[in-house]
Amino acid sequence: MIASLSGKIFVKQTSSLILDVQGVGYEVMISSRSYDALPPVGEEAFLLVQTNVREDAITLYGFCEQEEKELFVLLNSVSGIGPKLAMGILSGISAGELCQAISCKDIARLTTLSGVGKKTAQRLCMELSEKVGGFAVEASVAGTVAGSEAAVEGFAMQDAASALINLGYPRSTAWQALRTLQQRDPEAAAAMKVEELIRLALQNLA
Predict the structure, then answer these.
(1) Which 3 state secondary structure label does DSSP give 50?
(2) CA-based nearest residue to 86, from 123, 56, 57, 54
(3) Cα angle at 121 between 120 and 126, to 5 degrees?
(4) pLDDT tens digits, the chain, 206 residues: what are they?
(5) What is the CATH number of the domain that holds 103?
(6) Which value, to the nearest 10 degrees, does the dihedral of the CA atoms of residues 6, 11, 13, 16 take?
(7) Pairwise CA distance, residues 85 & 39, whole Å
(8) Which domain does 45 fall in, by range?
(9) Domain final residue, candidates 63, 79, 110
(10) Does 125 lie in the same domain as 73?
(11) By three-state DSSP, how is residue 93 classified?
């Protein structure tokens, strides 16, 4: 079973990449957060990997951080949540925020994530609230150090992405439009309200 990969990024997309490891190309599924954390095409990268084996396919899921990989495994242990939905959840919310939402049984926050309805959110809280307790404590400490502004920025971006997805745009397209805003002017994007983020993202998508 493949547990990690190190090589040169050959192709990089919002939901997957091809990593060239000594001449062998490995296709690896990633979250949008891992996409942001990874270097551009042509540069070296290291990924922690979770190998998913089925009768008809072997799929690799890659992560930049151990915490995200462990959460992916936990999410997959919940009834009704497969690898694709787990990656979608990790794309829409940071690991720390997810742990806090589950630990605090914040159903309203969880149901803002694409593909997560009320029943799924309830299952997440019921089955994982105790298991993510340690993660939530670590996230709380990290959040205190980082400051509340970063959390506000994260919520605004996530809410804007959810709104675009609800308008019918694919998840990857919605996040790509928002990432474009961040890349143009990170400080301005961080200060924008949800409504402004949506308006400018729609202009990029027009």
Answers:
(1) strand
(2) 123
(3) 95
(4) 788 999 999 999 989 999 999 999 999 999 988 888 889 999 999 999 999 988 888 999 999 888 889 899 999 999 889 999 999 999 888 888 888 888 888 999 999 988 899 999 999 999 998 888 655 444 444 443 333 334 444 567 777 877 887 788 876 677 778 878 877 877 787 788 888 889 998 988 87
(5) 1.10.150.20
(6) -50
(7) 25
(8) 4-63
(9) 63
(10) yes
(11) coil
The reply to whether the predicted model has a pTM over 0.85 is: no
Distance from the first to the final alpha carbon of the chain: 44
Rounded-to-integer distance, Cα 6 and Cα 11, Å: 14
Q: How many domains does the chain have?
A: 3
Same domain, 97 and 139: yes
Residue reference for tokens 């990874």: 38
**Residue that finishes a domain, picked among 63, 82, 109:** 63
Q: How far apart are CA 206 and CA 196, in angstroms?
A: 15
